[in-house]
Design goal:
With 668 residues, the protein is an alpha/beta fold. The protein is built from 18 helices and 29 strands. The longest helix is centred in the last third of the chain and has 18 residues, at 636-653. The termini are far apart. The chain binds adenosine-5'-diphosphate and zinc ion (ZN) (2 copies). One of its GO terms (molecular function) is ATP hydrolysis activity.
C-alpha cells in the first residue's frame, strides 16, 4: 500500500504542525485545506491539512496514521489558510490555534452526523438567488456619492466612511452592496457590527432589502446547529451576505468582494483573550490580500483610521448631515454639577427635561456606564468597605438580587446584615449604578414606564432583543442603560439623552481614555433626534470647562481628533508607535515581575525599546497578581522581527509563570 504524509495543523499551544501517514494511491491524495481526524495525545482531534508530502523527517516508529479525512467538505481555500497564517504570525501564535477554534464545533466533531445533516440541508436549498433589491429609498447627494464610490471601487480600496450619527450610513452600505451583487453573480459581502445586539436591526434591514439573497449571520449566540449551517453557507458560496460580530472575520468566503466594518472605532472589534486579534485590522489585511474594497464606517473614527485617511492611505467619504428630512444633530448642553446639585444623581435641569418629555410623550435615555446598584457599600462607623477578597476591586451592590458581586472574578456574597468588622447595622451604598438610578426614577416619576437595559437585566437569551423591541414600539418612556444602549440603535421617538457620570474617564491613566470617552459621548448623544424632532443632550459634569466636553458640545470630531493626534505624535504613542504588551500572572506579584525582568533582559534588539515591568492597574484578580511589560518600536517590521525571536526565547525558558503577549494592545 502506498502512503503519503499529511502535515496537519492542530489546536495546541506550542508548535502546532505534525506529520501523519495516510494510505493513498498517487493522484488520490487528500487536499490541502481539508479537515482530518488524527490521534493526538491519546485523543482524537480534528486538524487542518496544510501540506501533502511524499516524504517526512519523522522516524517511522514515531509516525501515526491519520484516522479520517472529511472529504465531504470542500477544502478551505488557500487564501483562507494564508489569512490564518498571517494572523498566526502577526499575533505570534501557532497556526492551528488561529485556524481551528473558529470553525463550528460540528465540523470538528469526530462524528459526522451533524455535519452531514447540515450539508444535506444546504444541498436542498431552493431560495431564489435573486439579488434585485426592493424598496430602495432615494439617497441624498452625499449618500449617493458614497454608495457609488464604494460600489464602483475596484481593487484594494480602503474607504473611511465618516458620517455623523444618523447620517444614513446603513443605507449607503446597502446600496453599495446592491451594486456589487448586481455586477457579480457570485459575489459575497461581509458586514461586521461591533455588538451582537445590533445584528437583528441590520439583519431586518438586509432581509427587507434583498429578499432573494441568502443571508448568513455569525455571532456567539447561535446554536451549534445554526452556526454550522451558516458557516457552511458562507464557505460554499451560497450565502451572498454574511453579517456577524468580530469572529466572522475568520469565516471562509470564497467569493468575497466587499467588506463593511460598521462602527469601526469600537473596542469590541478587539478580542480580549486568547488570540487577541483586531477584527478590523485583519479585515483590512484580508481586503488587501483579495484586492477588494473595504469600508470602515463611523461618526467617530479610531485615530488609527483617521490618521490613515488624513495621510491619504484611506479614501475619505463624508456624510455631514443627518439623512431624515429636517433631522438635525441634537443640541448638547453641559450641566455644571457644582451649581446644579443633583438629587438621586439627577440635576434639576435634567429632571425638568425628563418631565417635559413625559408630558410630550417622547422618549428619554439616561446613560450611565456602571451596572449594579452602587459600586461599593461601606460602614460609616469603622470605615469598612466591601473589597473583593480575591481582587484589587470592590464588591458591587446588586440590590434586586440581594447580592454583592465582584465584576472581575464573579465572587458573589449575600449582602451582610451588619458590618463584618464592627457589627454596625447601618451599611451605606456609595456611588450610583444603573439599578439605583432606575429606583430613583421610579420614585420621582411613578407614572412613567421605565426600562433598564444592562448586562444584568439581559442575562436571559432573547431578553435584550425583547427589551430593544419594546423601546422601538414606544412602550418605554425612560430608558436607563450602559454602553449596551449607546451605539448603533435607531430609536425613532427618542428626543432626550442624559449622560450621568462621565467625569471619571477624564483622569484615567490610559492614554486612550479620552478618545474612547469622546466617541462614547458622541455615539450616545447620536441616539437622540434621529427621526426629525428637536432633541437635546444634557451632560452632567463637574468639569464643564474641559476641552473634551467643549468638543462634544460643538460636535467637533475633526478638531478634537486632530489635537489628540498631535499629542500622540509628540508623546510617541500609537498610531505613531507600534506596541506589544507582555503580561505575566503569578500567585505573588514578585514572581510575575521577576519573570518580566528576565524577559526584558534576555534579548537586545536594535530599534526596540523595552520598558520596565510594572504591576497592572488592577493588580490582583481572582487571587492572581498581574504585571506587564511594554515593548515599543517606531517600525512595525522591526517589532515583528523582534517578537518572533523573543517569543521563541520566552517559550524556551519553560517558566512556570503564565504569560501572554498582545500585539497592538488597546489597554495599557
Ligand atoms: P447612521 O448609521 O449613520 O447613524 P442610519 O443608517 O441608522 O444612520 O440612518 C438613520 C436614519 O435615517 C434611519 O432611520 C434611516 O432609515 C434614515 N435614512 C437613511 N437614509 C435616508 C434617506 N436617503 N432618506 C430618508 N431617510 C433615510
Ligand atoms: Zn464597621
Ligand atoms: Zn473579585
Amino acid at each position: 500500500m502506498a502512503h503519503c504524509f499529511l502535515e496537519v495543523a492542530l489546536d495546541t499551544p506550542l508548535n502546532s504542525c505534525f506529520d501523519y501517514r495516510w494510505p493513498c494511491q498517487p493522484g488520490e491524495e487528500p487536499l490541502v485545506g481539508q479537515l482530518v481526524l488524527v490521534p493526538f495525545a491519546r485523543r482524537e482531534v480534528m486538524g487542518l491539512i496544510v501540506a501533502v508530502k511524499q516524504d517526512t523527517d519523522v522516524p517511522v516508529d514515531k509516525l501515526k496514521d491519520a484516522i479520517a479525512v472529511r472529504s465531504q467538505l470542500s477544502p478551505l481555500p488557500a487564501r483562507w489558510i494564508a489569512l490564518a497564517q498571517f494572523a498566526a504570525d502577526y499575533y505570534q501564535r501557532p497556526l492551528g490555534e488561529v485556524a481551528l477554534p473558529g470553525l463550528p464545533k460540528n465540523l470538528r466533531a469526530p462524528r459526522t452526523v451533524a455535519l452531514d445533516r447540515a450539508l444535506k440541508k444546504l444541498a436542498k436549498d431552493t431560495s431564489p438567488h435573486d439579488a434585485t433589491p426592493s424598496g430602495m429609498p432615494a439617497l441624498n447627494p452625499a449618500q449617493q456619492l458614497a454608495a457609488d464610490s464604494i460600489g464602483g471601487a475596484q481593487g484594494f480600496t480602503p474607504i473611511l466612511l465618516y458620517g455623523v450619527t444618523g447620517s444614513g450610513k446603513t443605507e449607503v452600505y446597502l446600496q453599495a452592496c446592491a451594486q456589487v451583487l448586481a455586477r457579480d453573480a457570485a459575489a459575497q459581502i461581509l458586514i461586521l457590527v461591533p455588538e451582537i445586539n445590533l445584528t437583528p436591526q441590520l439583519e431586518g434591514n438586509i432581509r427587507a432589502r434583498f429578499p432573494g439573497v441568502m443571508l448568513a449571520t455569525l455571532h456567539s449566540s447561535l446554536s451549534e446547529g445554526e452556526r454550522s449551517l451558516h458557516w457552511l453557507a458562507a464557505h460554499q458560496g451560497q450565502a451572498r451576505i454574511v453579517l456577524g460580530t468580530r469572529l466572522a472575520i475568520l469565516s471562509s468566503l470564497p467569493h468575497l468582494k466587499l467588506i463593511v466594518i460598521d462602527e469601526e472605532h469600537d473596542p469590541s472589534y478587539k478580542q480580549q483573550e486568547g488570540l487577541r486579534y483586531s477584527a478590523r485590522d485583519l479585515a483590512v489585511w484580508r481586503a488587501h490580500q483579495l484586492a477588494i474594497p473595504i469600508v470602515l464606517g463611523s461618526a467617530t473614527p479610531s485615530l488609527e483610521s483617521w490618521h490613515h485617511a488624513s495621510s491619504g492611505r484611506y479614501r475619505k467619504l463624508e456624510l455631514r448631515e443627518r439623512a431624515v428630512r429636517d433631522a438635525v444633530l441634537p443640541t448638547v448642553k453641559l450641566v455644571d454639577l457644582e451649581r446644579d446639585r443633583p438629587k438621586d444623581g439627577l440635576s434639576s435641569a435634567l429632571l425638568a427635561a425628563l418631565r417635559q418629555r413625559l408630558e410630550r410623550g417622547e422618549q428619554s435615555l439616561l446613560f450611565l456606564n456602571r451596572r449594579g446598584y452602587a459600586p461599593v457599600i461601606c460602614c460609616d462607623a469603622c470605615g469598612w468597605i466591601s473589597n473583593c477578597t480575591r481582587c484589587t476591586s470592590f464588591m458591587v451592590l446588586h440590590k434586586p438580587e440581594h447580592r454583592l458581586r465582584c465584576h472581575h472574578c464573579s465572587l458573589e456574597l449575600r449582602i451582610p446584615r451588619s458590618c463584618p468588622t464592627c457589627g454596625n447595622v447601618d451599611l451605606q451604598p456609595l456611588g450610583r449604578g444603573t439599578q439605583r438610578v432606575e429606583e430613583g426614577l421610579q420614585a420621582m416619576f411613578p407614572e412613567a414606564r421605565i426600562l433598564r437595559i444592562d448586562a444584568d437585566s439581559t442575562r436571559l437569551k432573547g431578553s435584550a432583543q425583547a427589551a430593544f423591541d419594546s423601546v422601538h414600539r414606544g412602550e418605554v418612556d425612560i430608558l436607563v442603560g450602559t454602553q449596551m444602549v449607546a451605539k448603533g440603535h435607531d430609536f425613532k421617538k427618542l428626543t432626550l439623552v442624559g449622560i450621568l457620570n462621565p467625569d471619571t474617564a477624564l483622569f484615567s491613566q490610559d492614554y486612550r481614555a479620552s478618545e474612547r470617552l469622546f466617541a462614547q459621548l458622541m455615539q450616545v448623544a447620536g441616539r437622540a433626534g434621529r427621526a426629525g424632532a428637536a432633541s437635546e443632550v444634557l451632560v452632567q459634569t463637574r468639569y464643564a470647562s474641559h476641552p473634551l466636553y467643549g468638543a462634544v458640545v460643538r460636535h467637533d470630531y475633526d478638531r478634537f481628533a486632530g489635537s489628540l493626534l498631535d499629542e500622540r505624535r509628540q508623546a510617541g504613542l500609537p498610531p505613531f508607535m507600534y506596541q506589544a504588551l507582555l503580561r505575566a500572572e503569578a500567585p505573588e506579584l514578585a514572581t510575575a515581575i521577576a519573570f518580566l525582568e528576565g524577559a526584558r533582559d534576555c534579548l537586545l534588539w536594535d530599534g526596540i525599546m523595552i520598558n520596565d515591568p510594572i504591576p497592572m492597574t488592577m493588580t490582583r484578580v481572582h487571587n492572581t497578581d498581574r504585571a506587564q511589560l511594554l515593548v515599543e518600536s517606531s517600525s512595525r517590521p522591526a517589532l515583528q522581527a523582534f517578537l518572533r525571536e523573543w517569543v521563541d526565547t520566552l517559550r524556551a525558558m519553560k517558566s512556570r509563570v503564565r504569560w501572554s503577549l498582545e500585539v497592538d494592545p488597546l489597554d495599557i
